[in-house]
Design brief:
There is one protein chain. The protein is an alpha+beta fold. 52% of the residues lie in helices and 13% in strands. The chain has 9 helices and 7 strands; from the N terminus they run αααααββααααβββββ. The strands form 2 sheets. Strands 3, 4, 5, 6 and 7 form a 5-stranded antiparallel beta sheet that branches. Helix 4 crosses helix 5. The chain is elongated, with a radius of gyration of 35 Å.
């Protein structure tokens, strides 16, 4: 009894393997010479041949391979089409549209480019619409104007696909802006109809902080251990001195960002009981949801060191201590005093 069950199980396993093999064979072996499998194999053969070719011959063979692949894929996916839910677009048209888009707008380095993704839905809709302008099958096919109902479906499908392409393009535009102007990421998009923030909001613009952090050691070098009288004269010219240092740091550290012209550096000198407080402001002059913009501030306290124990010492030198944390403010910077 056990032996019969064992042989029955083995027979079922062999039958399963045989059916699987026949299914793969049916998929891979073309039933006739003119079939979609033949076109796919020709594309693989063309790409393999182009690997050994040189010059423009290589490009021609590779082009032929792409054409065979697109034709074979389109043929296979339209034999028994699976429709995209809610439309009459075959899923195969999406696959063929992607291949056409990659072939037309891709590069050897980056096969899938933003333009490839943007135009993909529209190309797929056009591929879906093309067969509707032909009647008949095989060699008896002839051009024909679609029925009114079909024309309406085509117009709606292409319009929706173009709208999707526009939204995808809008995404790439916003992404490019944020790469070229990263300080925009600190803005508030809650009232925006088009932009939805997916990542956590940046508390402080990185480039604004970079400018202040790069300026700090230069200002400390200008002030520390210098005669107090000389430092006071430097503070009188702080607008010019700090402005020049800020311009140098902006040009040096923000060279890869287009927003470098939207930043400026200004000082604010405030008298305090034991000396001066120098506020260095990194001011954003670009677009912002706040009409008054925003700025980042680093505060430094400048004091005559010798005045603590010897207030009358005329040879006092300056000491400086700057805050480690920069403060971020929404609104216009304080006025010059």
């Amino acid at each position: 009894m056990n032996s019969s069950l064992f042989f029955k199980e083995v027979t079922l396993i062999f039958k399963f393997i045989q059916d699987l093999f026949l299914g793969v064979q049916k998929l891979l072996m073309p039933p006739k010479a003119f079939s979609w499998q033949t076109l796919i194999y020709l594309s693989v053969f063309s790409w393999g041949t182009s690997y050994f070719a040189l010059g423009f011959i290589k490009d021609i063979i590779a082009l032929t391979g792409w054409l065979f692949l697109i034709a074979g894929t389109a043929w296979y996916t339209t034999d028994d089409p699976l429709r995209v839910p809610g439309t009459f677009m075959p899923v195969g048209a999406l696959i063929t549209g992607l291949l056409v888009s990659v072939f037309a707008f891709g590069h050897q380095v980056n096969v899938v480019t933003p333009r490839t993704i943007v135009l993909w839905p529209t190309i797929a809709a056009i591929i879906t619409a093309i067969p509707e302008f032909f009647a008949g099958t095989g060699t008896a096919t002839k051009a024909a104007i679609p029925k009114l109902e079909t024309r309406q479906k085509i117009i709606v499908l292409i319009a929706w696909s173009m709208l999707i392409s526009c939204w995808i393009q809008f995404y790439f535009v916003i992404d490019k802006w944020l790469k070229e102007y990263p300080s925009l990421s600190v803005d508030n998009f809650q009232r925006s109809t088009f932009v939805i923030r997916l990542e956590p909001k940046t508390e402080k613009p990185k480039n604004g902080e970079t400018i202040l952090n790069k300026i700090q050691p230069l200002i400390e070098e200008e002030i520390v251990t210098k005669p107090w009288a000389e430092v006071e004269r430097w503070l009188l010219e702080a607008n010019k001195e700090v402005g020049n240092l800020g311009n140098r740091m902006i040009e040096k550290n923000l060279v890869k960002y287009k927003e470098q012209k939207l930043w400026s550096v200004e000082p604010r000198v405030v008298n305090i009981e034991s000396g001066y407080r120098l506020d260095i402001l990194s001011i954003w002059k670009g677009p912002s949801s706040n009409s008054r913009g925003f700025y980042i501030q680093k505060s430094c306290r400048i004091q005559p060191i010798a005045s603590v124990n010897q207030p009358e010492n005329k040879n006092a030198v300056a000491g400086i201590e700057c805050d480690r944390i920069n403060r971020f403010y929404l609104g216009s910077p304080p006025p010059q005093q």
